[in-house]
Amino acid sequence: MDIPPRVLTVAGSDSGGGAGIQADLKTMLALGVHGMSVLTAVTAQNSLGVQGAWELPAEAVRAQYRSVVDDIGVQAVKTGMLSSAGLVETVAELLAGTDAPVVVDPVGVSKHGDPLLAASALDSVRTKLLPAATVATPNLDEVAQLTGIEVHDETGMRQAADAVLGFGPRWVLIKGGHLPGDAVDLLTDGGVELWLRATRHDNRHTHGTGCTLASAVASGLAQGLTVPAAVRTAKEYVTGAIEAGFALGAGIGPVDHGWRFRTAP
């Protein structure tokens, strides 16, 4: 039997199923890899926002990670919600000893504006976590948190990319979804520069886009794609998922991780 590539997500749980660990595992299944998880936090979360969050102890995170990596192994790792400096440093230490590409989604706030990263953890993200990243995938709010740069146009995206690369990731994907016009992202390693553009879909149900994109990139890397190819493939998948996003509850619904299953002939 063929064994699918294995991808490990290190992230928080979204009880509403649209983001976090749940979105990561759905994305991995949709893209043909075997998803595994290290839970870092539990959230009470729905379409209206985050009502509560409880961080797991560092020893629980370390034990989950070692359990999976030492027995099953991984072809890529994706990180998401790491809410404290202690967790960031624990995960960065684990990543340093893992021979696999790493996608770091430096989650700072939820889709609804709820803070998911303590201000005291920002320095650890800059100095410990980002240097371990093969690809870092900040959105514009996270860029502002990490660098102080407020991005308003594509020139600002270049400046933001240079600033984030200064923290040590090999590649950075600046997500420009909050800018007007087409949905544009910038991928660069400081030399190669790729602009990825997609038509913006008029759909407010976009919960989980960041988690989904990062997991899709990690899935591509696990399958042996180059970073640019993995990001292009991930962008295509997420664009379709956003177009197919659907309403849940009274607020912002999720993207549709299974959109290809429902649109296949």
N/C terminus separation: 27 Å
Task: Please state how the strands of the largest beta sheet are arranged side by side.
Answer: 3-2-1-4-5-6-7-8-9
H/E element string? EHEEHEHEHEHHEEEHHH
- Rough shape? globular
Q: Give the low-confidence spans.
A: none
- Secondary structure tally: strands: 9
CATH class: Alpha Beta
Biggest β-sheet description: 9 strands, mixed
Helix content: 25-40%
| CATH homologous superfamily caption | Ribokinase
* CATH topology group: UDP-N-acetylmuramoyl-L-alanine:D-glutamate ligase
Please state the second-level CATH architecture: 3-Layer(aba) Sandwich
**Count of domains:** 1
Q: Please state the CA-atom Rg, rounded to the nearest Å.
A: 17 Å
Strand content of the residues, in percent?
15-25%
What is the count of helical runs?
9
**SS-derived structural category:** alpha/beta
In round numbers, the mean pLDDT is 94
Description of the structure:
The protein is an alpha/beta fold. The protein has one domain (6-258): Ribokinase (UDP-N-acetylmuramoyl-L-alanine:D-glutamate ligase, 3-Layer(aba) Sandwich). It is built from nine helices and nine strands. The protein has helices at residues 20-30, 58-71, 85-96, 122-129, 140-147, 154-165, 209-222, 227-243, 259-263, and strands spanning 6-14, 34-46, 49-55, 76-79, 102-104, 135-136, 171-175, 183-188, 193-198. A nine-stranded mixed β-sheet has the order 3-2-1-4-5-6-7-8-9, with helices on both faces. Helix 1 (20-30) crosses helix 7 and helix 5 packs across helix 6. The longest helix has 17 residues, at 227-243. The radius of gyration is 17 Å and the shape is globular. The two termini are 27 Å apart. The model has no long low-confidence stretch (mean pLDDT 94). One of its GO terms (molecular function) is phosphomethylpyrimidine kinase activity. This is Bifunctional hydroxymethylpyrimidine kinase/phosphomethylpyrimidine kinase. Catalyzes the phosphorylation of hydroxymethylpyrimidine phosphate (HMP-P) to HMP-PP, and of HMP to HMP-P. InterPro entries: HMP/HMP-P_kinase_dom (IPR004399), PM/HMP-P_kinase-1 (IPR013749), Ribokinase-like (IPR029056). Pathway: Cofactor biosynthesis; thiamine diphosphate biosynthesis; 4-amino-2-methyl-5-diphosphomethylpyrimidine from 5-amino-1-(5-phospho-D-ribosyl)imidazole: step 3/3.
